[in-house]
Design goal:
The chain has nine helices and seven strands. With 242 residues, the chain is of the alpha/beta class.
């Protein structure tokens, strides 16, 4: 298992953000309207009632119910995991025979049966901690609900969003076992079609999912890539370098 691929991208820490929380600029512009929408949101209410850390949990829950991603005994890596809504949902399903690793630059309160590694997953020190904890085990499923800090400039925000998807793809190509799965958040806009073609070089199928918990006004959707191809197969088509 090699991790040098995930360290090639130049660091742009200011562009990384986790979860579905709005960026500072976006929140400032919407002000009280955003807060009123948030507190009245059915999934926010459900999260509070169910003891979930984030409304984003229900996005993964709906996708999993339809596509059966999470199974007992799996090894799962959750990129940009804070505040932990996805890891919180995954851990009970994989059970004692599984492993869940949550990676984020932000702090995250502990979750039972989840190993949290704080830091930038592009850095070798963080990847070294993950590899040591994996103990030679390969990864079945990579999850990413990462989104960029919003600048308010559509073209800039789209570039940042695509960059995060590319980082998740690069990580998944490095760590997923053959046949493994990647679920990653993306946003409608320029470059998405090229990104999907790039993902197909590494996975048997790439499909779009838009769960009900994604707000109607949001351009977010999720790319579900299944069947990580054998490295020899992707190399033969020139697709093994992200």
């Amino acid at each position: 298992m090699t991790s040098n691929k995930t360290t090639r991208v130049a660091r742009d820490k200011a562009s990384r953000k986790t979860g579905d929380r709005p960026g500072r600029v976006a929140r400032k512009k919407t002000g009280g309207a955003w807060m009123r929408e948030h507190v009245s949101d059915q999934f926010v209410k459900r999260a509070a009632r169910d003891g979930m850390r984030s409304r984003a949990s229900y996005k993964l829950k709906e996708i999993d119910e339809g596509d059966k991603l999470i199974k007992p005994g799996m090894c799962v890596v959750d990129l940009g995991a804070a505040p932990g809504g996805w890891s919180q949902l995954v851990a009970p399903v994989v059970g004692d025979g599984g492993m869940v690793f949550a990676l984020d630059m932000l702090e995250m309160a502990p979750i039972p049966h989840v190993r949290f590694i704080q830091g930038d997953f592009r850095e070798q020190a963080v990847l070294g901690q993950l590899e040591q904890a994996l103990k030679g085990r390969t990864v079945d499923l990579v999850l990413s609900d990462m989104a960029p800090n919003i600048s308010g400039i559509a073209s800039t925000d789209q570039v940042r969003a695509l960059h995060l998807v590319e980082l998740a793809l690069e990580f998944a190509v490095t760590y997923l076992k053959p046949g493994g799965t990647l679920l990653v958040k993306a946003f409608q806009g320029e470059g998405v079609d090229d990104l999907r073609r790039q993902m197909r070089a590494f996975f048997e199928t790439v499909v779009v999912r838009k769960p009900e918990a994604s707000r109607n006004r949001s351009s977010e959707f999720f790319l579900l890539a299944r069947g990580r191809k054998m490295p020899d197969a992707t190399a033969a088509t020139g697709g093994e370098t992200v």
